[in-house]
Amino acid sequence: MNKKIGLTPTQFEVYKFIVAYHNIEGVYPTVREIGKGTIDGEKIINSRASPNTVIQILEKLDQRGWIERSPAMARGIYVPT
């Protein structure tokens, strides 16, 4: 795992969403679920129209050591402890 590097506000918002989604749903969110920005129908973060925007944010989170990804899997996000 890479050493954690600081995040932009948007990246941190998505990171917090991933952690909250996992805590509530028991699985990590898909790219589309992150793009919707809702958990149990409640708006948590701003939605993102393009899946590519979410993918770019996830790539930065992975590069900075905050998450690990398996892009070939639908729920291929993992938050190391």
The total count of helices amounts to: 3
Strand order within the widest beta sheet:
1-2
Q: Care to count the β-strands?
A: 4
- Considering DSSP H and I runs of 4 or more, what fraction of the residues is helical? 40-55%
User: Mean pLDDT across all residues, rounded?
Assistant: 92
Q: What does the largest sheet look like?
A: 2 strands, antiparallel
Shape: globular
* Radius of gyration using CA atoms only: 12 Å
Structural class designation: mainly alpha
What is the subunit arrangement here? single chain
**Amount of beta strand:** 5-15%
Give the termini distance in whole angstroms. 11 Å
Q: What order do the helices and strands follow?
A: HHEEHEE
Uncertain ranges: none
Question: What do you see in this structure?
Answer:
This protein has 81 residues and is mainly α. The protein has 3 helices and 4 strands; from the N terminus they run H-H-E-E-H-E-E. The chain has helices spanning 9-25, 31-36, 51-63; strands at 38-39, 42-43, 68-69, 77-78. Helix 1 packs across helix 3 (51-63).
